[in-house]
Backbone:
């Protein structure tokens, strides 16, 4: 089998390692078949799409909607690298699944309006499939509404005509979308389980995803929730595109 690639941008070691472990568990792949590239550490290597089965993108600290003068040199580099990669991915309709930062990468590439209007605290929300989502093979078998972990400072307000809306929530209208037949992005985190979200909550407690005095209540709320469905997307992605 040709390998998959996980493009990651987390600078904090524990959340970065945990994210990779979550993708390994969710996809059922081993480290030989899921190559991790940490873009915050250095430039994106050349990715020969003919030698890959598909591309995953993890979450991260970058906000596409931030003013240019507030973006670091690393963020500017990463955004330029994604723009070049997505030119080829979209043109070839190559298998791509961006989780959370997928909205900032694929959404920005397609010209979506991205801003802070539909930002969501770290937590759990019910996500509902659209008609197109219920018919989409990547989401096959998911219930019409399911719980998912979220936590983001920006979101898509308006999708471009090139994108198909697949899932929404009451607090964030664009939770998942598709471009072409094989290029996907989610606002929610399909890779996260309870242990993973607890690691993230603690690691990013001072990063503005919730108020400084809300750490314990945020941890408790996450621990009470039942989130079991979204990770199925990762296994389905691999089963559909492994080659």
Residues:
């Amino acid at each position: 089998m040709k390998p998959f690639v996980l493009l990651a941008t987390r600078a904090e070691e524990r959340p970065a390692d945990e994210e990779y472990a979550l993708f390994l568990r969710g996809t059922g792949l081993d480290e030989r078949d899921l190559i991790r590239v940490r873009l915050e550490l250095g430039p994106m290597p050349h990715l020969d799409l003919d030698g890959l089965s598909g591309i995953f993108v993890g979450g991260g600290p970058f906000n596409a909607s931030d003013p240019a003068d507030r973006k670091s040199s690393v963020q500017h580099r990463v955004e330029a690298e994604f723009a070049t990669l997505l030119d080829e991915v979209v043109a070839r309709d190559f298998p791509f699944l961006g989780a959370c930062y997928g909205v900032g990468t694929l959404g920005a590439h397609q010209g979506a309006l991205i801003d802070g209007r539909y930002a969501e605290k770290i937590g759990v929300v019910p996500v509902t499939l659209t008609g197109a989502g219920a018919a989409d093979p990547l989401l096959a078998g998911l219930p019409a509404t399911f719980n998912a972990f979220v936590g983001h400072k920006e979101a898509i307000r308006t999708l471009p005509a090139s994108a198909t809306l697949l899932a929404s929530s009451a607090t964030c209208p664009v939770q998942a979308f598709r471009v072409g037949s094989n290029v996907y992005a989610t606002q929610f985190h399909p890779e996260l389980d309870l242990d993973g979200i607890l690691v993230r909550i603690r690691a990013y407690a001072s990063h503005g995803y919730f108020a400084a005095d809300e750490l314990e209540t945020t941890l408790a709320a996450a621990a009470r929730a039942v989130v079991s469905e979204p990770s199925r997307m990762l296994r389905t992605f691999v089963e559909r595109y492994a080659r």
Helices lie at 13-27, 73-92, 101-109, 131-135, 194-203, 215-224, 232-241.
